[in-house]
Amino acid sequence: MKDLLFKRCIQLIMVAWGVGTLTFILMRSLPGDMAYRLAASRYGQDNFDSSTAELIRHELKLDQSAWSAYFSWLGDLLQLNLGNSMVSDLPVMDTLSHMLGHSLLLAGVGMAIAILLAFPLGLWAAKYGGWADRLTLLFSTSVRALPVFVIGVLLILVFSLELELLPVAGFGTPAHLILPSLALAISLAAVSSRIIRNEAKRVFDSSFFEFAQIKGLSTRKAFQRHGWRNLLVPVIAFFAIQLITVVEGVVMIESLFSWPGIGHGLAHAIFARDIPIIQGAALLMGIMFVVLNTLVDIISYYLDPRIKQEFSE
Questions:
Q1: How do the residues of the chain divide into helix, strand and coil, expressed in percent and rounded to 5?
Q2: By three-state DSSP, how is residue 171 classified?
Q3: How many CB atoms lie within 10 A of CB 246?
Q4: Cβ atoms < 10 Å from Cβ of 268
Q5: Which parts of the chain register pLDDT below 50?
Q6: 292 contacts: CB under 8 Å, gap ≥ 6
């Protein structure tokens, strides 16, 4: 376990440095004058002139060299200081921590609904096969072919505009959470249900499962005692791979439903060229990805004795 955590800590440091450096280079490579774009974000498109842009350039030290700015940023990062927003002048850490809570809420509810959808569908298809398998395959293929924001638009059209049951967008009540989390969950469940189906079928067809039934256990008892553990190890590993889909989906879903999370804030920061917010949001997403993968590794470590043996050697 210590080796696993040590490797993940090294990975976390490398991801933080890599994501931060890549974001810094990309932001510096954007066309246009950053000072003018920031002046427009602060005062409006028609309420500033060239002298205002020059003042902002001097105030935010945008006229310093790229290397000087990079090492200044790297030094601040080592002190866990992400700076202040170039538009609002609020600390980036405070702004992102406020957004992070909303993003985690959306991602957590979305993944919980996805699990509730994917497991029954996958087990149903594996157990009964035939038309049940073909029906779930059609669902999975059809949904997977749609980008997550298209699923969100379809839900808005049906439940908000046609049936008028749920709000189109915004935040404040539990009803505002239903459509964005459902859109994210449907997208995740489309593939997860097929992975669960394949793994469940592998368990049902295995010799150890057949032997458990020969011993006198019912199908349900055999699955509870011997099936779940074998099913969960590869499924949890797949959920770790899907975390990148969660991060991508959260960015698009938050923008579509005006959900005040990191993805929504990141989209606004990109339009406003608010570099500290962009770098901080990208950095936080990279760190979240490593932390969540570490949690999955820890769960797999306790579920699968082969992983314990691998790290003990």
A1: 80, 0, 20
A2: coil
A3: 24
A4: 14
A5: none
A6: 240, 243
Which residue, 174, 170, 182, 188, is CA-closest to 257?
170
Residue 103 CA neighbour count, 13 Å, CB half:
25
Closest CA relative to residue 229, chosen from 203, 207, 192: 203
Residue 157 pLDDT? 92
Question: pLDDT (tens digit, 9 = 90+) per residue, 102-149?
Answer: 888 888 898 899 889 988 998 888 888 888 889 988 988 888 888 888
Only one residue has tokens 């967008």, namely: 169
N-to-C CA span, the chain: 12
**CA–CA–CA angle 186, 188, 190 (5° rounding):** 70
Tell me the DSSP string of 238-252.
HHHHHHHHHHHHHHH
Instruction: Specify whether the CB–CB gap between 211 and 289 falls below 8 A.
Output: no
Residues 6+ apart with CB under 8 A from 136: 121, 122, 124, 125, 193, 194, 197
Answer for the pair 106, 242: CB distance below 8 angstroms, yes or no. no
- Alpha carbons 222 and 71: distance in angstroms, whole number: 60
Q: Which domains does the chain carry?
A: 1-88 (no CATH), 93-311 (1.10.3720.10)
Q: What is the spatial distance between Cα 98 and Cα 134, in angstroms, rounded to a whole number?
A: 44
Q: Which two tokens stand for residue 264?
A: 């929504």
Residue with tokens 């570099």: 275
Residues with Cβ within 8 Å of 303's Cβ and at least 6 positions away in sequence, in order, are 229, 232, 233, 236
Contacts of 251 (CB under 8 A, 6+ apart): 262, 263, 266, 267
pTM of the model: 0.76
Phi, psi of 126 (to 5 degrees): -70, -40
